[in-house]
Amino acid sequence: MINAEKERGTFDMFKYCEFYCEQDVNVLRVGFGAFRSVCLQEPINMDIYNITTVPSLANKFLNREVFYPNGNLYEISGSVKEYIMGAIYGGCCMTKNNKRYVVKDKLNDFDACSLYPSAMNRLFTIEGKPEIINECLIDDKIYDDNNPHPLLVRAFDEDQTEPTKDKDLSYFVVDIEITNVGKSRDFPLIVLRDENGLNRNVNETGFMRVDMIALQDLVKYQNISYKILGGLIWKGNRDHRIRNTIRKIYDLRRVYKKAEIRWKKY
């Protein structure tokens, strides 16, 4: 620590800035070295000297551990990718019922841990290529929880890995028209995009593009009535190895999290 103090309670700004910048770089150096040593060990086994970003590290790791070993997974691009991306809305950012609140009491900020890994621990990858939904599955009928669409009837169960006679759809992405909302929620699952492309979480009817899980949730938690307008389906196997892989990473995180807590005590 340098002495940057001057007379009468002042300090040398340039000396302090020099020390601050040196410390900043030193902390980055030590942190990078510690992170690299972790990545060189099991289960990651990668040298981050050859990787420029954390997303790139995650992508390389999942390619090696999850995607490439299967041998029957397909990368997507072009119009198929664009269509599927239309069912991705991002995180929900809103207050209760989208209203303004003036809160003067103390708030408890609940910060949930590892939400993405928690979801991946229940997810899967899908083998094979998508197919366009057959016209016989598209009609003008209105479906709901008591009268589910054949796509939901034929959808895999959560832990199912191979198609059966009755459950032969491993995944789908579809356009739907929501004709009725049976249950209103303070934080709705229904997301409608306005003319500016902004997401609105609302208890309203309208048009959405959803995947299998989103449609199941809309029916279960908001009791919607809906029409299927078209989309893509997959009939291949589900691969669950992503669950064990993300569990290993999560358990490793817990180990280092505990080490951080012990360090902070000193």
Explain what the structure shows.
- It is a single chain.
- With 266 residues, the chain is of the alpha+beta class.
- It has a domain at 73-241.
- Helices cover 36% and strands 15% of the residues.
- It has helices at residues 13-39, 54-70, 78-85, 115-120, 150-153, 212-222, 241-264; strands at residues 125-126, 131-132, 171-181, 191-193, 199-201, 206-211, 224-234, 238-239.
- The strands form three sheets. It has a four-stranded antiparallel sheet with strand order 2-7-3-6.
- Strand 4 and strand 5 form a beta hairpin.
- The radius of gyration is 25 Å and the shape is extended.
**Count of helix runs:** 7
How does the overall form come out from the CA principal axes? extended
Which regions contain 5 or more consecutive residues with pLDDT less than 50? none
Main beta-sheet annotation: 4 strands, antiparallel
**Number of E-type strands:** 8
- The largest sheet has its strands arranged as 2-7-3-6
Overall average pLDDT: 92
Rg estimate, integer Å:
25 Å
N to C succession of SSEs = HHHHEEHEEEEHEEH
Per DSSP, what share of the residues sits in E-state strands of 2 or more residues? 15-25%
- Overall SS class: alpha+beta
Q: What is the helix content?
A: 25-40%
Task: Report, as a whole number of angstroms, the end-to-end distance.
Answer: 20 Å
